[in-house]
Amino acid sequence: MFCFLAGAVNGFSATKPEAAPSFGFDAVVAMARDLAAQPFQEPKGMVPDFLLKATYDQWRDIRFDADKSLWRSENLPFEVQFFHLGFLYDRPVKINVIDAKGVSQVPFSTEFFNYGANDFKAKLQDNLGYAGFRLHYPINRKDYRDEVAVFLGASYFRAVGKNMGYGLSARGLAIDTALDSGEEFPYFKEYWLVKPSIKSSQMVVYALLDSASLSGAYQFVVRPGQATLVKVKTTIFRRREVGKLGIAPLTSMFMYGENTNQRPIDDFRPEVHDSDGLLIADGTGEIIWRTLVNPKRLLVNSFQMNNPKGFGLLQRDRDFANYQDLEARYDKRPSVWISPV
Q1: What is the CATH number of the domain that holds 187?
Q2: What's the domain range around 156?
Q3: How confident is the model over 226-271, as pLDDT tens digits?
């Protein structure tokens, strides 16, 4: 389970690098403001076709060399590994590090990756860029840095708590979801990773968001733990009118469960889902629970309220016997609770 927190939390301070950096959230806000004043530039066309034509299995065969992890040689509590472009990931993102020396870009190199059975390496140049990154931290064992958070694809990010596996995702922003005009997917085009200290238990990431309609500046403070907390601060700038704006959106999977009769006749698993319901705490103290369904057509449910205390998609059923999937382990998928403050 992890908590995606929009705003400040008492006792939850930002990670300090080895020296106070000159670059911070205000600098990203200024960049987002300037970006919104310019026409949107679609970044597609910057990734070689042979990478975009790669199958999922081919892309998965491109693995980051863990020995090349950012900060591994310094034995810091956090390490960073990077994702290769290709398959669905067609937008290069720029990744920077903020430390006592200032801001520097993380260079792309084919030497950071093992390409498996693919013959891609010789065809690539060292200015390709990355698709995203993941944070590692010793959340389960002190002697091993587990993968605890991922920023990959559009504005998607997700995290896990102790002894859990990945499931649903959060997004930076949702634009025109379920409208006839079609949904617009903004993306994080640049990241800044604040180098943690040797005693850091949380890490700061800045991000610059862009889309045809909006631009935005984001600050993520990630604190791994039994329940991993992600504190988010954002400032959004509009390029044009938006029909529907989604703040703190979540994306999950529900195929079938105990409250549905959609189980395929040839599937032995009793339930298949990353989340089984939506929980809402409104401003009056009322608690609303809605089980998820898998409709045959687009279905939109709306809830009107003032000053909601929180909402989230939960995976409440933790009994393995109700899933019986040794590979997917749906019983270990996280829940997400969002608290606006």
Answers
A1: 2.70.98.10
A2: 2-251
A3: 999 999 999 999 999 999 999 999 999 999 998 887 788 889 999 9
The number of domains in the chain is 1
d(CA 33, CA 30): 5
- At residue 48, the 3 state secondary structure works out as coil
- With residue 32 as reference, give the H or E element that holds it: helix 25-36
**Closest CA relative to residue 330, chosen from 287, 267, 245:** 267
Per-residue CA distances from 337 to 178, 320, 332 (Å) = 23, 22, 16
CB contact at 8 A, 72 and 167: no
Any domain includes 285: no
- The 10s digit of each residue's pLDDT in 113-170 is 999 999 999 999 888 999 999 999 999 999 999 999 999 999 999 999 999 999 999 9
